[in-house]
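batch_manifest entry 22 of 60
target: S1 motif domain-containing protein
source organism: Bacillus mesophilus
requested by: lab member K.T.
priority: normal
notes from requester: please return tokens only, no post-processing; we will run our own comparison against the previous entry in this batch. if the run fails, retry once and flag.
--- input ---
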Amino acid sequence: MAINPGMIQTLIVNREVDFGFYVTDENEEVLLPNKEVIGEIDLDDQIEVFVYHDHEGRPIATMKTPKITMETYDWVDVVGVNEGLGVFIDIGLTKDMLVSRDDLPLFEEVWPTEGDRLYCSLKLDRNGRLFAKLATDPVIQELSMAASRNAFNKNVRGVIYRTVKIGSYMLTEEKYIGFIHDSQRRVEPRLGQTIEGRIIDVKEDGTVNVSLLPRAHEGMDEDSQVIYEYMEGRGGAMPYWDKSNSEDIQARFEMSKGAFKRALGKLMKEEKVYQEDGWTYFTSRK
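--- output ---
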């Protein structure tokens, strides 16, 4: 066994000094400062400690339990930003942990700011230094749940966990994975920012498309709004029109064919949409 930074380990209290205790795995030892001791301990006790590096890079043990380790993930708060280094997160210890700028978005405009939240664990770099690590897509997928079609048009709240060129990914409070295309936002949200939007499409795999834009046409009746927002989530086009099969309409929109035709007719009368070859399009696409 070795004393490994970033992990909770059971070590033996080996000797006491004025400023704390040294704990050991019987091969090497590490300092447990007095301020990191919880309760009373005696020589030869086996205690659980977490090992990290102090501000001078020296290994330090603590009996405090961190929010995250190299083996566990959790949501942690951003407590500081350093343009040259990255962002610092609070993991419940005396020292805040750094998410390196190398692991953050290229553009600092979408870096997290103080108060944002990140889903992280810990890692060691090639020099053995301890850093925070952002959760990867597979980790988020394990945390997520599939949305049902009933989630369509619902308001959601969640945190941005990944940014890419064409949009942003969020995890909602319901644990749905949501994608926000850049056409569905006015300002690109920050990594770690908590945002609110609405679901404009539910995909077969249970992920959702989310819009951060305000609901358009508040005077629109409910059925017309459902159709309009479904089309909005598909870029302004849908493979349904007033001659579509009633079963298909019921399955997709949960409305009768008569209600669908009335709602679609209202949209056409208002010149918001038009039909062509079995499809319906936003008039703005002409």
